[in-house]
Volume-regulated anion channel subunit LRRC8E
Amino acid sequence: MIPVAEFKQFTEQQPAFKVLKPWWDVLAEYLTVAMLMIGVFGCTLQVTQDKIICLPNHEPQENLSEAPCQQLLPRGVPEQMGALQEVKGLKNNLDLQQYSFINQLCYETALHWYAKYFPYLVVIHTLIFMVCTSFWFKFPGTSSKIEHFISILGKCFDSPWTTRALSEVSGENQKGPAAAGRPTATIAATAGAGPGKAGEGEKEKVLVEPEKVVTEPPVVTLLDKKEGEQAKALFEKVKKFRVHVEEGDILYTMYIRQTVLKVCKFLAILVYNLVYVEKISFLVACRVETSEVTGYASFCCNHTKAHLFSKLAFCYISFVCIYGLTCIYTLYWLFHRPLKEYSFRSVREETGMGDIPDVKNDFAFMLHLIDQYDSLYSKRFAVFLSEVSESRLKQLNLNHEWTPEKLRQKLQRNAGGRLELALCMLPGLPDTVFELSEVESLRLEAICDITFPPGLSQLVHLQELSLLHSPARLPFSLQVFLRDHLKVMRVKCEELREVPLWVFGLRSLEELHLEGLFPQELARAATLESLRELKQLKVLSLRSNAGKVPASVTDVAGHLQRLSLHNDGARLVALNSLKKLVALRELELVACGLERIPHAVFSLGALQELDLKDNHLRSIEEILSFQHCRKLVTLRLWHNQIAYVPEHVRKLKSLEQLYLSYNKLETLPSQLGLCSGLRLLDVSHNGLHSLPPEVGLLQNLQHLALSYNALDALPDELFFCRKLRTLLLGDNQLTQLSPQVGALRALSRLELKGNRLEMLPEELGNCGGLKKAGLLVEDALYQSLPAEVRDKMEEE
């Protein structure tokens, strides 16, 4: 007998594929097994038993009717039975080989083809049904997508993160109305309590019943780091799979085609089986010309399996009918609803994850099939389509990775002296940050989509916040907290319109630093949000490509003390609004494309420091007008193209610091010595060949930088500057250093590297404040000093 297992290869599938089998496919599979058993049973009988048995007909040829064997059928007529008994003992004079020959010949010529091949037809048709049912599981274009989908689906279903996410949502939904609708009284920690008690209320819920108290443990499970990373990888896989599968509808099309083919096959089988089933008869008349061989030309044959085949045929037709009805229902299901679209509306309502997107094409079709198996699969799978769920997972992974102990190791003092926590290039902001209540400055760089949680209010010492390419959302409830605590705010982004609006409502803010570009079409207007709310603002720094000073700067004109405009080379044209900044003490106009000193600057009576670094200044003849800025003490004109200093620089009596480095100076005016208040003079990185002797008049000079020039000698008058502490002479062309350097008793730093010196004067030993660490010179020159001088310098 042929085992049914031999046909397993035609319908063999992975066990996991069962989730894509709706009930009609499962029913059809069982029906095909039943039909296959009918066919195999018939084939087995056909092979193992005699097919037909024939006996010669003794009636004369002329007396034979058209159906010579019909009279032998048992119809209950006694005469016929008597006739059969009369001829029962007739001898045919045929041997066994002649009977076998007649049986085979009559089987091939007289028996109807349907009666002969019925079991084989059943097997063939059933195999076709099997192939049609499982073809989309085998076809390369569809099987790869199905296998990938089943793999991801199983991992999503079993992921601990899915259980946690749904449990959290379920817990949130049951806090309010759900609890009120229960028949038994519920005693739990009040959900409306403060933040500190809310966590305790989630730990346990006590259900009070008439006779017993039942304590429900929390459903939410804890994820370890490994499980969190696995869930993170699943989110990425689901995203990529969705993009790939939603592009086409090959699965949907293939399923329709194989269903239509099964319906057509069912109709064809049903029609021809109903027509030919009556051809299976018990007695068959056989008329063959074999009289020369056997002596007979007419035979009456018995089809031994006719009775059984007729019963099997009716059973087979019944199964085919049921199979066909399932196929017709499948077509109805395929066409009566839009299966290329799938909505997660019910899941969104149930879980509260309102951002779960609807899907389409093959992705939608597979989810519809999954719902026929178990809708819980779609619900758990939807967790990995939600960006809210993904952000929660990222937050959980961050909290695992960045523990409070690890964050405390990153704490350090910043330039402002505040205890700062700096985080860079993280996928989010760890909640553990808000456990460090000692943090005074929070610096966040390259962190995307920050939403500050209520825990921000725990940073009671927070005074400084930096958001560098880190867009942040701030709930309204936290704006009051930052408005009362924050003193310094730094924001850096691609475009200034990305600056959060809540920044301009921080009333206690004292420093605001903004960095970003205006769009090209708005750069000329340079419109900035109103600063009227910033009543305490003292420092404003703006790095952009503005064409003029933003008009909103005048909103803080009455109390702004420091303004820094860094334009990255873009030309700043309109500067008249600077005149309104009456309280301004420090002004920086860096890389603003200025060719002259702006006249508006001379109207700033309170100005103490001016920085015009990295512009295109060639002439500073307007320097005379600085005498109107009576409080000006620091003037930075470095990194320009200034070729000379005008003589009326002598008018700047109150000037204490003058920076002229990185220019094109070749000489200095002698009148510079009349700037009696000068404490710092930096003329390094120029082309100076000599110094005027009048430099010795600068009796208050403490810092003099002459590095990277072309000086070959120093005037002896320079050493009259008794208060000089720092003298930088590196990278010049000096051949000797005057012994009068010993008169500089306060000197603590002397740079001489990069010159042409052959020896150092031993008078350096008279510079009591000069130690070895403060003397920057080649080792060979240092060794040329007398031993006692070296020992003195090396003393602690």
